[in-house]
Amino acid sequence: MKTELLKILRESDGYVSGQQLCERFHVSRTAVWKVIQQLKEEGYEVEAVKNRGYRIMTTPDVITAEEIRSRLHTNWMAENCIYLESVDSTNNYAKRIAEDGTPSGTLVVADEQTGGKGRRGRSWSTPKGSNIAMTLLLRPRFRPEHASRMTLLAAMAVTCGIRRVTGLDAGIKWPNDVVVNGHKVCGILTEMNTEVDYINYVVIGIGINVNQKEFPEEIREIAGSLCLEAGKQIGRAALIAAIMEELERIYEIFQKTEDLSELYEEYNQICVNCGRKIRVLEPGHEYTGVAEGINQDGELMVVRDDTGEKVSVYAGEVSVRGFYGYV
């Protein structure tokens, strides 16, 4: 009831009468009043005017399941949403509940993450009340070899969501770092549990620096936040909802072909590496070239400087850096 009540109040142009809410939910005025009081305790400013009803004046920056679902316009993705005040890792939590049969499309969101991790064992900090730490649980029906591309899909969804909500010119540093003005604002970690030819589940962990204003000195030149880039606070729940809507759209396109044949052009339009000179860092080997964008398999196509040969670069153990810096 709280989710629907929030949705109704938020989407209304004016006041919503208590009687309308009673009839909508088949409950008493007292029951409606109790939910309104709960919202006020959570930080919502709800105005109540006799003979007119209720309306929301301001919304706190909360990422509860009710707040996210009240903003969501998806058919199935994130409709089942789990909110945690604090957790070691949303990926770890999602893997635990996946083993218990939790359905595909479940979103796990935490206000604080104490043991988050990035690629290659790196840590990912999520201080309380400022950033987004979330993991989406999926149970794909395609073969395991196609699952690695889902990280690129997530990067596309995050980039599109950031652009929609903030207006910032977000882009992707191949394969899945989301950047704004040369600063990394999002990291994505995909993990999966498989049989030989079958995927039991995939968890896509997404960490976004939203309203964080300070970073440790060792990452200050690379890391950034949406707040710092936009010059204002960003509502986290609205951003989460937008990302889930974009990811549902992108994922359903991907499922039809199980490759990026219908998506790579859209990816390349928002990939900051396209048309730029880059350094490709392979284990024990490094070369430079110009990135032309990805192909339908998600590989980065690079024209090498030393040979003029066009080569495909697979994410795996390879890193890409801009010729003059991180991007």
UniProtKB/TrEMBL annotation:
Cross-referenced Gene3D superfamilies: 2.30.30.100, Bira Bifunctional Protein, Domain 2, Winged helix-like DNA-binding domain superfamily/Winged helix DNA-binding domain
Binding site for biotin: 89-91, 113, 184
Keyword Nucleotide-binding among UniProt keywords: yes
SUPFAM superfamilies: C-terminal domain of transcriptional repressors, Class II aaRS and biotin synthetases, Winged helix' DNA-binding domain
Stretches of the chain forming a coiled coil according to its record: none
Keywords of this entry: ATP-binding, Biotin, DNA-binding, Ligase, Nucleotide-binding, Repressor, Transcription, Transcription regulation
Enzyme class: ligase
Pfam families named in the record: BPL_C, BPL_LplA_LipB, HTH_11
Annotated DNA-binding residue span(s): 18-37
EC number(s) from the headed UniProt entry: 6.3.4.15
InterPro entries per the UniProt record, alphabetical: aa-tRNA-synth_II/BPL/LPL (IPR045864), Bifunct_BirA (IPR030855), Biotin_CoA_COase_ligase (IPR004408), BPL_C (IPR003142), BPL_LPL_catalytic (IPR004143), HTH_11 (IPR013196), Transcriptional_repressor_C (IPR008988), WH-like_DNA-bd_sf (IPR036388)
Superkingdom of this protein's organism: Bacteria
Function summary: Acts both as a biotin--[acetyl-CoA-carboxylase] ligase and a repressor.
Protein name according to UniProt: Bifunctional ligase/repressor BirA
Organism: Hominiventricola aquisgranensis
Organism placement in taxonomy: Bacteria, Bacillati, Bacillota, Clostridia, Lachnospirales
